[in-house]
Amino acid sequence: MTDRNLERPAPGAPDFRYEEHESVGSTNTLCFDRARAGHPGQLWIRADLQTEGRGRRGRDWSSPTGNLFTSLLLIDPQPAERIGELPLAAAVALANAVDKAAGTLQLVDLKWPNDLLVNGAKLSGILLEAEVLDDGRQAVVIGFGVNCVSHPPLTLYQATDLRSLGFQVTAGRLFEALAASVAEQLAHWCQPGGFQSIRKQWLKRAAHLGKEIKVKTAQGEISGIFADLDARGHLVLKQDDGRQRTIYAGDVFLSDNHG
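Now predict its structure.
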């Protein structure tokens, strides 16, 4: 019997490596540990259970057994100024993987920058973190948490899971679809102009495009119509006075308070 912890080719993406664990604190943290130890990257780490899962802006991420918890380590994937495009590429990859694993077409909508929604309820979270290593390499880690069989009852946003929606999708099956889908999107992303095809795919699933939204940023709350994504994937708001404003980071809510 193969030791699950041993690194091996990733299912669905043989050009990537893969580790599997019963329980870890955080798959993102473990990826950074591997990077600091000199790992060359293209490494997936998946766990059945996370005890210290985290989401965007330092929030806790509920991590019960049966859901998917996995992170991908990349080393110097592209110049640093392009790393901000990766959350959108990851969201498109995960949305496509959910469709493949569940046998659906356009099941999920995307909320900027990278949340997956079904009927307005949050199905997953994606957390991208980056660190410049002591040897000058940049480690980029993309963490995915997907509600396959359960979801937390009380969160900042309404949540859902695939089982509640009527889809029997195991974490293992979804991971294999995700690994293949991420490999495909990263290949697009690394091509000259490749992000534009990802941007177009993202906009086809955009949950709030053309709607009045509120964006909570570190500087305060901004309202306007979700008009577009710019060429780097930033949110473009059309404000009441007709001016357009580019948002680089923030939490999006519909103006009627339903995120």
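The mean pLDDT is 90.
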